Amino acid sequence: MKKLTDFFNKRKITCEEELNILDIEDNIFFSLDNTISIYLKVEAIPFEYLDIKQKQEIVKRFIMELAGEKEIIKIIVMSLPVSLEVNKYLNDKRHLTKNSFKRNMISKQIEEIKELRDKGEMLEKKIFIQIFKNNNDNYAIEELNKRANELSLKLKNVGFNNTIMNRYEILQFFNSFLNLRFKNENINNIWSDESE
User: Fold this and answer.
1) Structure confidence by residue, pLDDT tens digits, 114-155
2) Whether residue 181 sits in one domain with residue 88
3) Is residue 29, in this structure, part of any structural domain at all?
4) 161 and 177 share a domain?
5) What φ, ψ does residue 158 adopt, rounded to 5°?
6) Could you give the CA distance from residue 60 to residue 68 in angstroms, rounded to a whole number?
């Protein structure tokens, strides 16, 4: 019984404490424990549309590109509403195919995705990568930016389109799993530069 009492009497922690937030400037996330990090948003490759050889080639290139990585990489995968990128990918595939049956099947799939997305019934996996560095010298931010650009290039060499997230995207990312009732305009009000 004492364990339950201790559990329910624990002090509630704030979002800032949970996320370890000190500040976010440009694309750099400053944490309370004196580390800095950068987030990359990675577009998933739709493996279900690739044949076995294509999948094997992507995995081989991925292993080769990341073989030299010695620092910690945190990979976060979330289910969020389907973006328009899926339709863009399928549209490109549809235009490139010469087989009319395949083209019709892809067109039907695009329409189904649109309908499910509009109803909010279809989710897709979103991939985010966080890289860290201790903020203990004058060159930490420069080194972290260099590492982020190198990692971004390695992922692009494999075929994973990605971008380094800016301040607003990082806030949206936190918002997507912390407080679903929060609206984007509220984020702008809280984190606006006017209050600084």
Assistant:
1) 777 777 666 777 889 999 898 888 899 999 999 999 999 999
2) no
3) yes
4) yes
5) -80, -30
6) 14
**Secondary structure letter of residue 120 according to DSSP:** T
Residue with more model confidence, 147 or 14: 147
- DSSP secondary structure string, 32-73? TTSEEEEEEEEPPP-GGGS-HHHHHHHHHHHHHHHTT--S-E
How many structural domains is the chain composed of?
A: 2
Q: How confident is the model at residue 45 (pLDDT cuts 50, 70, 90)?
A: confident
Closest Cα to residue 37, out of 145, 126, 154, 127?
A: 145
Predicted structure pTM score: 0.65
Full residue range of the structural domain in which residue 139 is found: 15-78+127-195
72 with 107, same domain: the answer is no
Distance CA(72)–CA(82), nearest Å, equals: 29
Q: Please give the sequence-ordered ranges of beta strands (E in DSSP) within 67-191, or none if there are none.
A: 73-81, 123-134, 162-164
